[in-house]
């Protein structure tokens, strides 16, 4: 009755419909509900809420906690993206071999990316607290006279979180850059070698331009990952000390379920969404233009 | 955020479905009620299962599906369940003031509360009791290490603020860190500030929080700022470990019990962590006031609240009342969490508990006639802070560890109060 091709098409259409349905239910619908909520004074404990126009959006302009959380989140996003991508390129170059031991190391390098954020938070907490592993090691070998508050001062906590996130994201960036490196034609490298182009010059003139598409993907996803960061911070510092490491996502959850301000939390979520979209589009656009130039 | 919220709702739904399938159906025509609990090292899964079984014997036909909060923050989890349409029938140790305004809780019968508890109105909201006042805590006491006090030439615990500063100075001079602070956990970081605020502000005006709700007083008032300056004095004199904000609550316990510092301002639940083998080495005194008067920052906690929307109010009430009056449940709370029992007509011996001398001394502050005030940030009655203010209070405590701008931090609290109550 039906040809093999039409059966295959039907199956694909079914899969596409399923995917579209899931996308609509779990992404588009909640997004629209949250957008609606952002114009109300919705409280998770109240059955009804009122439409309050743009009041939530106006309040954001004078919200010091929101401003601080955005500054923290953006600082972290920029710093971690740079560090994780630099590390990713370095690891990828080191691991771009076919020997079994390198393949094992590649798996190890990717390991942080597959761990749950909660587990990462707990593991690093045992390392970074005052009585943690790092202070014990550094004091026992004489590098520190007394334990250092890695999570106990705003600046140190920012750097500590940055290091943890860089570690997590470097797994992902390494894999992206490895894939990009393996797509560089061997002939290009051979020709460069014959032309006497070696070492850092070869990396700068041949490799770096050729892995530009990988850079676009890696930088964009790293930025978005940090902009929406919640779990690792919630476990590692809880946003402290004194809210100094409160990411915008953590602030949103607190507004919704601690302060009972679901409407305002939705407005802040919309802002974060818009910010992430603008940053992602701007960065992707700039990097794509760079790909063409290179 | 959006996806997280939606996902949370989906997960909560999944949890409820799982719980329903696990719990089985009704037996004997009774109802099946959901019961939100939480677990700690002392309040284990076995404790809850046994306590539920015992209460069910008193409330025949009631089936219980136990839900465990993912952290000790029961309130936030209950709000998530409410926002996904799954508010539990019974909720253990939540803060009723967060839910009463939305009409989500059912009050207990006043005659039953009056008949069974020492302080029937201890955690009441506008005269109604939503959680049986089964137990209480002092938040904070100052626990101290007797051996380290002796080593520093200190004969007795301080009775007023001047003596307290003298004790700190002697300890420091003897090379002993005066205080342990679990500043990495915001609630633990707030303990000195709760003590100072209770002693100096609430001790002089026990209605301060009601006045704050009425906008008659502010955090940035001179008397509050002066009191909070005392915390800065302790910090700037170097009486805390410099890295205290990096110390987690659990580590602060081991630091103090391990003799790394001489004093530990903490809620009386610390009594459950006093090492049995050298319990006599630990003592406790109330946070000292200027004039030496005793002010006890007091919290009357309790067992479970009942949902106003439960499909079986009678069954839920019977179960909750049976659970609340079972001395075996109080035994676990007394021994493990240092809770002070508040059941009428019972002595410690009635609970068949083994307690330390420091527990008995601390319990005496509850039973003796003294000035008791509702500990700021901990009270669950009419003096409970507005939603979200606790977090701001904790954040101020952490900020004041590094910032000398007391007035500025108090103004931030006033601003947060305004936002939370508008």
Automatic annotation (TrEMBL), chain A:
InterPro entries: ABC_transporter_permease, MetI-like, MetI-like_sf
GO (cellular component) term, any one: plasma membrane
Domain ABC transmembrane type-1 stretches: 70-283
Biological processes annotated in GO: transmembrane transport
Transmembrane feature ranges: 12-33, 70-95, 107-127, 156-181, 208-230, 264-287
CDD domains: TM_PBP2
Membrane topology: Multi-pass membrane protein
Keywords on record: Cell membrane, Membrane, Transmembrane, Transmembrane helix, Transport
Subcellular location: Cell membrane
Chief site of localization: membrane
Family to which this protein belongs: Belongs to the binding-protein-dependent transport system permease family.
Protein name per its UniProtKB record: Sugar-transporter integral membrane protein
Species the sequence originates in: Phytohabitans flavus
TrEMBL record, chain B:
Transmembrane segments: none
Entry keyword annotation includes Signal: yes
Recorded superkingdom: Bacteria
Gene3D superfamilies, alphabetized: Periplasmic binding protein-like II
UniProt keyword list: Signal
Alphabetized InterPro entries for the sequence: Bact_solute-bd_prot1 (IPR050490), SBP (IPR006059)
Xref: PROSITE patterns: PROKAR_LIPOPROTEIN (PS51257)
Full protein name: ABC transporter substrate-binding protein
Lineage, uppermost ranks: Bacteria, Bacillati, Actinomycetota, Actinomycetes, Micromonosporales
